[in-house]
Amino acid sequence: MKPLYHPDRDDIQLSSVLYALSDPVRLHLVAELRKAGERTCGGMDVPVVRSTLSHHSRTLREAGVVRVRVQGTQRFLSIRTDDLEYRFPGLLDSILQAYAKSGEAAAFQDKTVT
After folding, report:
1. What pLDDT sits at residue 114?
2. Residue 17: its pLDDT value, please?
3. What Cα–Cα distance (Å) separates residue 28 from each residue in 3, 48, 53?
4. Any domain includes 29
5. What single string gives the DSSP state of each residue in 34-76?
């Protein structure tokens, strides 16, 4: 199996991170990872089908927001907190705090599978 692409710390671009976090599903995934730590794709509580979840996790990975670790048939996601903090100090915390205060997190849970 070919290794998954993860940008080097110095290659993470602000525009890519902001784009990745601009989607409500991806923002919710990152917020869930922040609360629970590393999780498997199957262990994520999001109301989307598996193929859509795969697309969103790839977008986050290629932007440098998450790291995906493959172990057997499982894919484990974790936030690249240290790398993001090094590149853009305070950005992720600010975005996740604003997300939590906005009420979007609670509203997101009520959505149906798309």
Report:
1. 44
2. 98
3. 26, 12, 11
4. yes
5. HHH-SEEGGG---SS-HHHHHHHHHHHHHHTSEEEEEETTEEE
Give the torsion sign (CA, 84, 90, 91, 93).
positive
Confidence of residue 108 (pLDDT cuts 50, 70, 90): low
Q: In 3-state terms, what secondary structure has residue 18?
A: helix
Q: How many domains does the chain have?
A: 1
Q: Which residues pair with 75 in a beta bridge?
A: 70
Q: Which two tokens stand for residue 69?
A: 């670790």
Show Cβ contacts of residue 46 under 8 Å, excluding neighbours closer than 6 positions.
25, 28, 29, 32, 53
Domain harbouring 16, CATH code: 1.10.10.10
Average pLDDT, the chain: 89
